[in-house]
Amino acid sequence: MVKSFIGPFVVTFAIAVFVLMMQVLWLYLDDIAGKGLGFFTVIELMAYKCVGLVPLALPLALLISSVMVLGGMAEHYELSSFKSAGTSLLRVMRLLIFFGAISSAVSFFCADYVIPAANLQFGARMYDIQQKKPTLNMEPGVFNEDFNQYAIRLGGRDDNGRDISDVLIYDHTKAATGELGQITANTGEMYSANDGRFFVMKLYDGVQYSEQRASGNSANSRPFIRTSFKSYTKVFDLSEFNLQKTNTKLFSTNRSMLATWQLQIGVDSIDADISIRKQSISNHLINYLPLLKKDTITYREARVVENDNYDGRPEEFSDSTTVDRASQSSEETDPVATTNRRNAGTPPSRPVAPLNKPQVTTAPQETDKQGSDLVQIPQSDRRRQVHQKALSNSLVTGIKNWNGVYGLLDSLDTNIEDRVLNRARSAVRSITSQAQAAQRILPGIKETRVKHIYDLHMKYSMALVCIIFIFIGAPMGAIVRKGGFGYPILVSIIFFVIFIILTIFCRKLAESFVVDAAFAGWLPCIILFPVSLYITSRAMKDAKLVNVDSIVIWFKSGFEALKKLGGANR
Questions:
Q1: Which of 38, 246, 427, 529 has the highest CB neighbour count under 10 A?
Q2: According to the model, what pLDDT value does residue 522 have?
């Protein structure tokens, strides 16, 4: 059984990887073509991508090979001989199930450990290739702009690839200062030097033009320089055409390059970002409603910034979301809001001095009753005075005899009323803008969270489907009773395409917030698992996959019942 299974499995796995690799090459063909890449660079890219195709190629290879093996055994009546000897179909499939379990472990190991590293290298190299300039190509009659700030046109080019004629070069290297240059030559030659590091154009019988920006008092003063030459050599550096290597750490945060534990950390970080944004909106209201309690939950540990201007406050560490500090700045400038919030039991934003060392400020200085000496008032007494003054405000005293908002506004002077209304409108606009900004940003953050969760559970789902395909492929081979590559590939492709469609459909459902992301990751397996049990039970009973006779009998009985019903109505 093992000998008959290993051969088809290796062949089908190689075919599956090749087909999937061709799809990837067609996808990136526009980025690779014309870049002058070496053979080993292309092989390196293909090797990185082949590793990423293992979790997708393994289920397809298991499905095709299991249908081929069991179909060949059923076609040659070997499976019937096993059953007549008392060996059940599950016992015949025992080694296939064991092999499927090993494939599941290999698939999860690749998806969790190998593929993130391979995708990281592939992404970095593909970015370098996309940024690389195409191979230098000097075609006659066409302006070439491969060199930065140069445009080169060749009127003619000899068959030897070296001799050129009617050369025109536009030099824009000093265009920022207003200086434009142009070089023309009747003949010349071009070649590479220093092992291809430099591109040399040696020109003969030409003119170099230079036009500078106008200077002096007269706007019409435009210095113009024309220089004739018998021989002129222009050297271009070809290092910009080389393939650069970017640091792979720049791509390490992409979710396709993360393991399961890193994806889980990413989900926790995104949850913290969402909570911090909601907290910032809640605390923003305190600027206008100071009696509200501040949300003091710390979603991330604070780190201390060590610099000369450090004011004693910890800085919140955030991956992609910065906490809104408007509430803190308002608390520092509004003593009434500070007093009210502290009376409500909310801790202050700045560290409070110890109780045995009263905090004293030197800024607010007041005179005593005699008006002779300046004395320093403790900050606690100062805040108490400000609080008492705020309580005596007409807005606070007017609420005792509440007659509605308009009645309260009517009790104020006209200037004060206009000021209150303007501040109210400003507060509404500020709160609305904060809420609208969060409404625009939060859906994108939540969609990123859904994608992380879906990719996390798909690693497990792609591993489990290897075992499910064994319970689909082997019974289907016993039912079809055909070996070789014909019927097995047809049957396998049908089930594999169904699995791919379910995977794409479930991803779209998760990203649209229709179903939970974790459930969407497991949904293809949940749908295919009952199908595999049904196919296995039908194969164990030596029955057809679909009993057409029973369906025909059911339809006949339905038509007869309709005829009898119609005759009774007449």
A1: 529
A2: 93
Residue ranges of E strands in 137-263: 143-144, 150-157, 163-171, 180-193, 198-211, 224-237
* Residues 530, 471 share a domain: yes
> Is 465 a member of any domain?
yes
Beta-carbon contacts of 159 under 8 Å, excluding residues fewer than 6 positions away, are none
Range of the domain at 505: 2-132+456-543
Say how far apart CA 114 and CA 52 lie, in whole Å: 8
> How many CB atoms are located within 10 Å of the residue 337 CB?
20
pLDDT at 270 over 70: yes
**CB-based contacts of 470: which residues, under 8 Å, 6+ apart?**
62, 66, 93, 96, 97, 99, 100
Q: How far apart are CA 169 and CA 164, in angstroms?
A: 13
Band of pLDDT at residue 332, cut at 50, 70 and 90: very low
DSSP 194-206: TTTTEEEEEEEEE
The sheet with strand 198-211 has its strands ordered as 143-144, 150-157, 163-171, 180-193, 198-211, 224-237
**Tokens 């093996």 sit on residue:** 69
pLDDT at 468: 92
Q: Are 474 and 91 in contact (CB under 8 A)?
A: no
Q: Is pLDDT at 527 greater than 90 in this prediction? A: yes
Coil, strand, or helix at residue 351? Answer: coil
How many structural domains is the chain composed of?
2
Contact of 280 with 324, CB cutoff 8 Å:
yes
Distance between CA atoms of 472 and 470, rounded to whole angstroms? Answer: 5
Q: Please give the Cα distance from 436 to 62 (Å, whole number).
A: 51
Residue ranges of alpha helices (H) inside 110-172 are 115-131
- What lies within 8 Å, CB to CB, of 187 at 6+ separation is 163, 164, 165, 167, 203, 204, 205
Question: What is the Cα gyration radius of the chain?
Answer: 39
Q: Are 402 and 408 in contact (CB under 8 A)?
A: yes
Where a domain ends, among 197, 224, 241?
241
Task: Please check whether residue 552 lies inside any domain of the structure.
Answer: no
- DSSP element (H, E) containing 365: strand 360-367
Half-sphere exposure of 526 (CA within 13 A, CB side): 9
User: How would you class 536 by CB atoms within 10 Å of its CB: exposed for 0-12, middle for 13-18, buried for 19 or more?
Assistant: buried
CB atoms near residue 475 (< 10 Å): 26
- Residue 79 domain flag: yes
Statement to judge: residues 492 and 539 lie in one domain: yes
